Amino acid sequence: MDRVESPVPSVLCDVGALTAGASGGAAVRWKLAESGRQLDANVVHLTAGQRVDAHTEPDLDVLLLVLAGDGTLESAGPNEALAAGGLVWLPHGSRRALVAGAAGLSYLTVHRRRPGMRIGSRPPGAAGPAVG
């Protein structure tokens, strides 16, 4: 009988090393890319004053963990100060923007993995190829 291998946990990166002395422009410093995953995750760095413009994520809740630096979360509610160690829930449908403070802002985002695009048949009367 063939034996099925179980997935094995692994250390992915040293977040402290990714964020220590981060310089340069806004950048994704790390991205979860393991095959078969059910989550997406990114470590992002913004330099002082840089921003992620206001946007709405219609489908996914996102957890945001501030790793280093400081900044502001702008939303329909009151602006929230962000600092290292802050854990923020960004519910799907919420409008939000991020602005890095004087120390820059490094953060981790985690959310359910988006399904990949797929080609399929299009509904009757629809124009162009079906993409999902």
TrEMBL record:
<protein>
    <recommendedName>
        <fullName>AraC-type arabinose-binding/dimerisation domain-containing protein</fullName>
    </recommendedName>
</protein>
<dbReference type="InterPro" id="IPR014710">
    <property type="entry name" value="RmlC-like_jellyroll"/>
</dbReference>
<dbReference type="InterPro" id="IPR011051">
    <property type="entry name" value="RmlC_Cupin_sf"/>
</dbReference>
